[in-house]
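Backbones bend. Shown next:

***
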Amino acid sequence: MDDPDRNDMRDLCEGQDAALNRIMDRWSAPLGAFIHRYLQDREDAFDLLQETFVRVYQNRDRYRPDAKFSTWLFAIAVNLCRNRARWRRRHPTVSLDAGAEEGIPSCLNASKSGEQSPDAALVQRERIRAVREAIARLSHDLRTPLILFQYEGLTHQEIAGVMNCTPKAVETRIYRARRKLKAWLADIDQARPSPAP
């Protein structure tokens, strides 16, 4: 069976630059979703998405056709995300729209059906914000496999290739990430005041 990613990488290595456009068409959405979930900033995510494809082009001769393309691609994105997160820690800023919910991916937005009461919608938005903040608190080694597994659907084997570790290590990291999130979110739920009768 033909693999379009391998074929396009072969074409790219042979000087057919239009192959990069095909790769970008296929991978922009899933890769952009991962980067956005990791960084939780729309502008940074867009910048790193573009930078990832620049790196694909620059390192096209390093791609091994026997390796899975998605693993190689996500490894580039993961490294860029880790570097950007480190840079942010050293150069903290306060966003003027830090409270805006527009940065939430559409799959996490509250239901628009109108069936929710305003109170329920507020609780749901607060919960989404709490989950986003809790994921952002995770270390790189826990955040990355959790997002790749839970949201991007990669297998433990594929994540192990991205993170250069064993599938068992991936399983352990996902388990630890979920335990931390559960504990942090339980603390938030306990601190939330009970609704008025």
Residues 1-90 form a domain with the Rna Polymerase Sigma Factor; Chain: A fold (CATH 1.10.1740.10). The helical segments are 4-13, 18-39, 42-58, 69-90, 118-137, 140-150, 156-163, 167-191. The mean pLDDT is 84. The first helix runs from residue 4 to 13.
